[in-house]
Amino acid sequence: MSSLDIKEDRSQRIAILHLTGRLDTVTSADFQKKITELMDGGENQIILNCVELNYVSSAGLRIFLMAQKRVKAKGGGLRLVGVSSFVKEVFDISGFSTLFSFYPTLDEAT
Question: Which domain holds residue 18?
């Protein structure tokens, strides 16, 4: 069974989404809704805490890419924190690794 838990947090003027579980075709709609709400609300500095994200499918990658394009268009940035080697490999294989900023810890990303 697929499940993704999304918790929102703030650090200074940066929105942080903590992702736990699997980001796949079943859960990607919830993730897209949440990140779109943030961007529609004017957020252009977003950190995605992926420490507890254990799977990303191509559907999930599309949401990451859409969010990256939107925040860059607004002069902002999307940062990924604590991406596991398994999830990072998905970004590498898809060629998306060069499009994102990866940080080992939240402190380094803020």
Answer: 4-109
Give me the residues paired with residue 53 across strands. 21
Three-state DSSP at 73 gives helix
Where do we find the tokens 């499940």?
Answer: 3
Give the DSSP letter string of 7-18. Answer: EEEEETTEEEEE
Kindly state the greatest CA–CA separation across the chain: 38
Q: How many domains does the chain have?
A: 1
Q: Would you write out the chain's pLDDT as a tens digit for each of its 110 residues?
A: 679 999 999 988 899 999 999 999 999 999 999 999 999 999 999 999 999 999 999 999 999 999 999 999 999 999 999 999 999 999 999 999 999 999 999 999 98
